[in-house]
Amino acid sequence: MSSSGVPLDWAAGDGSPGVNVLADLSSAAVSAIAADVGRGREPGELALVSLHWGGNWGYAIPDAHRAFAHRLIDEAGVDLVWGHSSHHPLGIEVYRGRLILYGCGDLINDYEGITGHEAFRDDLALLYFPTLRPADGRLERLVMVPLQRRHFRLERAPRDEAEWLCRMLNREGRPLGTRVRQDGPDRLVLEWQAEH
């Protein structure tokens, strides 16, 4: 999406390379994704949609992003929405049993040493390990492993940094109905209210 800094003229065309740019978050965009999912999905397969959207810094999740992610699940049959663009993790939602990662943050980047956004702790990263039920795509478990980038290398995050990530994800997940708990020294586990 152009909200992530990708210009619309980077779009792939007939006979020309590029990226699959969504011009907007309209009903037509949901319908187009639903058609792609329907054409490409074999029986027993799960559908994941990867969206490069939103700004690089800040925790706010636009209402339009939430509504679009919900429509992808409701109308396009998507099992997991994987969002990225933010240079730090964002809040996590479980909607109708489906995982929505609005912004996963960077795992590797070349921004180390650039100043101005230290409060977001972009040196901290997460590995995401979701377990989805094969029969219906519902989330069974999400384990996250906290890491820290130092000198362009990934290392296990120290306990206090993992605790910082846990507090941040709880703060940002509260309005989305999720919380995170530490499960040992180097794992975070997502908790959510199951829908009936």
From TrEMBL:
It comes from the Bacteria. Residues 10-111 form the Capsule synthesis protein CapA domain. Belongs to the CapA family. InterPro entries: Capsule_synth_CapA (IPR019079), CW_Biosynth-Accessory (IPR052169), Metallo-depent_PP-like (IPR029052). This is Capsule synthesis protein PGA_cap. Coiled coil: none annotated. SUPFAM superfamilies: Metallo-dependent phosphatases. Pfam families: PGA_cap (PF09587).
